[in-house]
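Request: Have a read of the protein record below and say how the chain folds.
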Amino acid sequence: MKERRASQKLSSKSIMDPNQNVKCKIVVVGDSQCGKTALLHVFAKDCFPENYVPTVFENYTASFEIDTQRIELSLWDTSGSPYYDNVRPLSYPDSDAVLICFDISRPETLDSVLKKWKGEIQEFCPNTKMLLVGCKSDLRTDVSTLVELSNHRQTPVSYDQVGTCVVNVEKSRFKKKKKSERNGVLFVINKM
């Protein structure tokens, strides 16, 4: 079976060749506990993780077909902890895309997209595709989350705030995603 990297140029013949697998490395970054691991767990294993365990580095694999073309994903889950800021860049080489995740119920995680993640990605993999991914969208209407945010004079991240962030980063390089369900994850992957 032939293989090709997703970042390699496609010819019309290679796109149609069902014997050729496409391999794609996707690195997932974002603040701690913003939903990165759950997003990948849902995509790779089709279920939410039962318990939260802080990630240092974890790799998931997933494969699927799009129009008879076999796609093999190597999904790199990274720690958002500042303790790993010097180690995380080791995950970037040869990446085909970077998903920058934020937690819709924690507005400060969207701020980190501009303050931290944008610069890190531009430094270590400037030509890599980036997608902004809002995780935990179910908490947008969760009563206890809304009460907690209200106590801090905050609200869940709005679509307008995401749009402003996208414009501030580089509009042509980002696409928006609303849900972290498996179909939403497939949407993200297909947009790359």
